[in-house]
Design a protein that fits this description.
Blueprint: H1 2-9, H2 11-26, H3 28-35, H4 41-61, H5 64-93, H6 99-105, H7 109-120, H8 127-145, H9 158-179, H10 185-206, H11 209-215, H12 219-247, H13 250-253, H14 256-270, H15 277-300
Helix pairs in contact: 1-2, 2-12, 2-14, 3-6, 3-12, 4-5, 4-10, 4-12, 5-9, 5-10, 6-14, 7-9, 8-15
Length: 301
């Protein structure tokens, strides 16, 4: 208990936790890649959701009567947009996109959160933030145009799946502010997975998942990677992230956005993925765009 209090009540502890979260979430993309060795993209996504559902089930059961019965419809929509759809989209994206680039493009989430807020939730925008939006999207376009030789080539359409996933995250973030401010985040997370978990498991049982488990030598190792992704990268990381926000601030915790791509790129390079100079230019544009968006968001709040 004393060690936990140290981590959550000291500046050094806050930084260590932030680095841990960045490493965990930055590792998610290589774990998805390893899961795809034996399973289809839809199976990887639904396995991730199914495992997280089972892990968080004890928390959800305690809150069914007090919260879920009253808001089950909006929680179901939130769970689908925030968790189920992005889990599948990221897996689909990595069938044609390296894990490191998927991790970098995931950093567009704050930009999409702002864009969705402006278009659908009447969120005001600072004029300088429009520059940040443009710079960030320019970076994603540049990354999507880098060819196999490192020069500009044809557009990689698998980038669109990551953009759609981050768009979902943008909607989810605005939904939290609009509909769930009175619900603590652990309750919301557990109930969101409670609402979508059974559907994910039903899909798995209706697919060739069991056949793959029985016939592929790589199935158990891929299943292990996905379990780690769900248990540590989703369930545990969310609990720690929520505690970090409570101990510091949402502004400090959001710094994780800038560090996740570093971990994703390092894992990709270790796994033999190739990155070219234009990729790094695109990464810098995305990070710069997110920085501008967050900077003026902080000033206006």
């Amino acid at each position: 208990m004393q060690k936990e209090n140290y981590y959550f009540n000291s500046n050094t502890g806050h930084i260590l936790i932030l680095l841990f979260l960045s490493f965990v979430w930055g590792s998610s993309f290589i774990l998805i890649k390893k899961g795809l060795i034996a399973f289809s993209s839809s199976q990887v996504g639904t396995l991730r959701v199914g495992f997280t559902f089972i892990i968080l089930l004890p928390f959800a059961i305690k809150r069914i009567k007090s919260v879920f019965r009253a808001k089950w419809k909006i929680i179901l929509i939130y769970g689908t947009i925030a968790n189920l759809v992005p889990a599948i989209l990221f897996a689909v994206a990595e069938t044609g996109l390296s894990s490191s680039l998927a991790g970098v493009l995931n950093s567009l989430t704050p930009i999409f959160t702002l864009l969705v807020g402006i278009m659908f939730f009447a969120i005001p925008i600072h004029k300088t933030q429009t520059i940040g939006l443009a710079v960030g999207f320019a970076g994603s376009v540049l990354i999507s145009m880098v060819g196999a030789s490192g020069g500009l080539g044809e557009f990689n359409f698998y980038v669109i799946f990551v953009l759609l996933a981050t768009l979902c995250y943008g909607f989810a973030g605005n939904m939290v502010r609009r509909y769930f401010m009175e619900i603590d985040s652990i309750t919301l997370t557990s109930l969101a997975f409670f609402s979508i978990g059974p559907f994910a498991i039903l899909y798995l049982l209706s697919s060739d998942f069991l056949f793959r488990m029985g016939s592929l030598d790589t199935a158990w190792s891929s299943l292990f990677y996905i379990f780690v992704l769900a248990a540590i990268g989703t369930a545990l990381a969310m609990v720690i992230f929520n505690k970090l926000i409570q101990a510091t601030s949402a502004v400090f915790a959001s710094t994780v956005t800038y560090i996740i791509p570093i971990a994703a790129v390092i894992w990709g390079l270790i796994d033999g993925e190739t990155l070219f100079p234009l990729h790094f230019v695109g990464m810098l544009l995305i990070v710069a765009g997110v920085f501008v968006v967050n900077k003026y968001k902080k000033k206006s709040t």
